[in-house]
Design a protein that fits this description.
One of its GO terms (biological process) is glycogen biosynthetic process. It is an enzyme of class 2 (transferase). The protein has one domain. It is 12% helix and 28% strand. The strands form three sheets. The protein has a three-stranded mixed beta sheet with strand order 4-1-7, with no helix packed on it. The protein has a two-stranded antiparallel sheet with strand order 2-3. Strands 5-6 form a two-stranded antiparallel ribbon.
């Protein structure tokens, strides 16, 4: 997954976190309300996910039947929208890593 430095313009975008040595993707709907200020902080979460991923298609094919993804629920306007992010699937790939992009 391509990432860059988080700026004030990116405060609501996704980031990457490490949980027990596994790279995970974190989006704002997954953050409890009491931690939103931390999530939006450029000091606490310094990485911004650009939503670009590079994948090895053979690796995806090998894991296709076992890939699990988290469902993100968004409440609003009388409907519940269910979605999942492509970045959320990186947890299924133990060798996933962040490719840092220097953006000038």
């Amino acid at each position: 997954m391509e990432c860059t430095e988080k700026t004030e313009n990116d405060i609501k975008g996704g980031t990457l976190i490490d949980i027990s040595g596994q790279l995970m993707h974190l989006e704002i709907p997954q953050v409890p309300p009491e931690h939103l200020d931390e999530f939006c902080s450029t000091r606490t979460f310094k990485i911004f996910n650009t939503n670009n991923i590079w994948v090895n298609l053979r690796s995806v094919k090998e894991r296709l039947d076992t890939i699990s993804s988290e469902i993100i629920t968004l409440n609003g306007r009388g409907v519940i929208q269910l979605e999942t992010s492509i970045g959320g699937c990186i947890r299924n790939f133990p060798r996933a890593y962040c490719k840092w992009l220097l953006v000038a």
